[in-house]
């Protein structure tokens, strides 16, 4: 079997990539370099780099995910899509290119809260003034779930690891403010998800 046929696949990525891209086309219209934190399977990176040819898209994740990401990159051979960087947000960050924006999808509920804090802090240090942080995923508001499906998902997440869980929107806003990231947008997305945007002040 061709190794390309073994590349990882997420149906959720397939479903949400176009709704996310709709916003990224606007948000990243003037961006040169974008860092994706937690590239996962690599599907988002390929789709976004293909449809945002003006953007140099830098993938990153823990090393155990690099092989799968690289399979997607090898298949598409896009000149603006870059090999995954080894990034553990709670560890020593690797040397990064000068970035204009950062994107992360479905990570803040998988990471521990300490890791979420480390990610926000690390990105705030590396974004330029005016740089954007775009976060996609499910959120709670006022300490409440926005749907029964999100509540079931949260129970499942915490059963896998008590440090996981859907985050409170207000808590993320406070975190962003504490590291110099100003909340700019809260966009409703399909399947009870949100697309949040911060800008470095």
Automatic annotation (TrEMBL):
Which terms does the record give in the GO molecular function aspect?
Answer: methyltransferase activity
Top-rank taxon, per record:
Bacteria
Which SUPFAM superfamilies does the protein's record reference? S-adenosyl-L-methionine-dependent methyltransferases (SSF53335)
Pfam families xrefs: DUF938
Keyword annotations from UniProtKB, A to Z:
Methyltransferase, Transferase
Which InterPro entries does this entry report, sorted A to Z? DUF938, SAM-dependent_MTases_sf
Q: What is this protein called?
A: SAM-dependent methyltransferase
User: Gene3D superfamilies recorded for this chain?
Assistant: Vaccinia Virus protein VP39
Q: What is the lineage of its organism?
A: Bacteria, Pseudomonadati, Pseudomonadota, Gammaproteobacteria, Cellvibrionales
For biological process, the GO terms are: methylation
């Amino acid at each position: 079997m061709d190794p390309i046929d073994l590349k990882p696949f997420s149906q959720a990525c397939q479903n949400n990539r176009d709704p996310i891209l709709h916003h990224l086309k606007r948000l990243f219209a003037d961006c040169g370099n974008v860092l994706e934190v937690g590239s996962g399977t690599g599907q988002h990176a390929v789709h976004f780099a293909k449809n945002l040819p003006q953007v140099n898209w830098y993938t990153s994740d823990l090393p155990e995910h690099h092989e799968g990401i690289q399979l997607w990159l090898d298949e598409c051979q896009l000149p603006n899509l870059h090999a995954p960087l080894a990034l553990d947000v709670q560890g020593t960050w690797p040397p990064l290119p000068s970035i204009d924006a950062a994107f992360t999808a479905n990570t803040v509920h998988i990471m521990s809260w300490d890791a979420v804090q480390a990610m926000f802090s690390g990105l705030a240090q590396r974004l330029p003034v005016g740089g954007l942080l775009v976060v996609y995923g499910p959120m709670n508001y006022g300490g409440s779930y926005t749907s029964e499906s999100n509540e079931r998902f949260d129970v499942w997440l915490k059963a896998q690891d008590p440090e996981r869980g859907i985050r409170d929107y207000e808590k993320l806003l406070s975190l962003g403010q504490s590291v110099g990231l100003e909340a700019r947008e809260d966009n409703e997305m399909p399947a009870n998800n949100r697309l949040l945007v911060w800008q470095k002040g």
